Amino acid sequence: MSTTAVTAPVRNYRGRFAPSPSGPLHFGSLVAAVGSYLDAKSNQGTWLVRIEDIDTTRVVEGAAKDILTTLEAYGLYWDEDVVYQTQRHDLYAHTINNLNNQQLIYACHCSRKQIKALGGIYQGHCRHLNHSQHHSALRLIQQHAICQYRDLIQGEVHIGQDLAHEDYLIKRSDGLFAYQLVVVADDIDQAITHIVRGADLLEPTARQLSLFNQLNHTAPQYAHLPLAVAKPGFKLSKQNYAPAIAKDNPKPALLSAFEFLGLAPSPELVELSIEKMLSWAIDNYSLQNVPKVAEIQISQKLNSQATLFTQINK
Ligand code: GLU
Ligand code: ZN
């Protein structure tokens, strides 16, 4: 078993797990849940769950409930009421107003096809066209381009200049608030200090950091966990048949998640209760021991007690 972490706890730590209810939890999302939970709890912090159901086109009925029941089966209890993005439209509208008052928003009438034809990165075509904002997609004038930031696990992260400077969407043409906007509005509103999530969000983080700046708010610390992949470049997802994790037999997957996060549990750990397994993990977890790679390939043996991981270098 690994030794107890020596780093001093962070004060007033507030972390969160923010699943999109597009299906049941699979091993990849369990890693994000357990990783954010252990990081919070090993810092005597508060751990929140936020259901990211803003993109109603991707929401699967019953998935949010199923995710919460699964978290409970894994002993991952949240500390405050669960927040649902679909119930927070006022907060997002308020955030847009704030940006609008700074004259940083413009309506864009370009189609995805047009932008793709111009190379895929938006070049600010509508910035000075003064389209009406009514029923339009909205973009934020990028004044705080972030090309580089420091991640607690992945180290120095670099973002392409074009992408960093893009006036990105904060409201979609179908009227839905965009992910970048709501995630930052929520993280500010919930006073999140640490964000531990999958490395598939390394690039969007640069935009989120720029939005924190724009809203005059200190950004949280970011720690991007290696992404669980089926093969290099392909994250576990419903599309590649990552199975939903078992609710009736949580211990093997929990043990695998501990290993994935750089803990060294002995196989006998599964003889303990879920609660005791988690408290062992809280005592032994250290962010320093999380593999500093962007992806880890999962073998076929998932959900058995002998999961094998192949590490893939960045
Ligand atoms: N809802 C996002 C997802 O499921 C995660 C967003 C976040 O952690 O910031 O991929
Ligand atoms: Zn446009």
TrEMBL record:
Keywords noted in UniProt: Aminoacyl-tRNA synthetase, ATP-binding, Ligase, Metal-binding, Nucleotide-binding, Protein biosynthesis, Zinc
Protein residues bound to ATP: 238
EC code: 6.1.1.-
Span of the annotated motif 'HIGH' region: 19-29
Stretches assigned to the Glutamyl/glutaminyl-tRNA synthetase class Ib catalytic domain: 14-244
Cofactor note (record): Binds 1 zinc ion per subunit.
Sequence positions that bind Zn(2+): 108, 110, 122, 126
Chain location of the short sequence motif 'KMSKS' region per the record: 235-239
Pfam hit, one: tRNA-synt_1c
Transmembrane segments: none
Binding site for L-glutamate: 16-20, 52, 179, 197
Biological process according to GO: glutamyl-tRNA aminoacylation; tRNA modification
Function noted in UniProt: Catalyzes the tRNA-independent activation of glutamate in presence of ATP and the subsequent transfer of glutamate onto a tRNA(Asp). Glutamate is transferred on the 2-amino-5-(4,5-dihydroxy-2-cyclopenten-1-yl) moiety of the queuosine in the wobble position of the QUC anticodon.
Xref: NCBIfam families: PRK05710.1-3, queuosine_YadB
Protein name listed in UniProt: Glutamyl-Q tRNA(Asp) synthetase
Gene (UniProt): gluQ
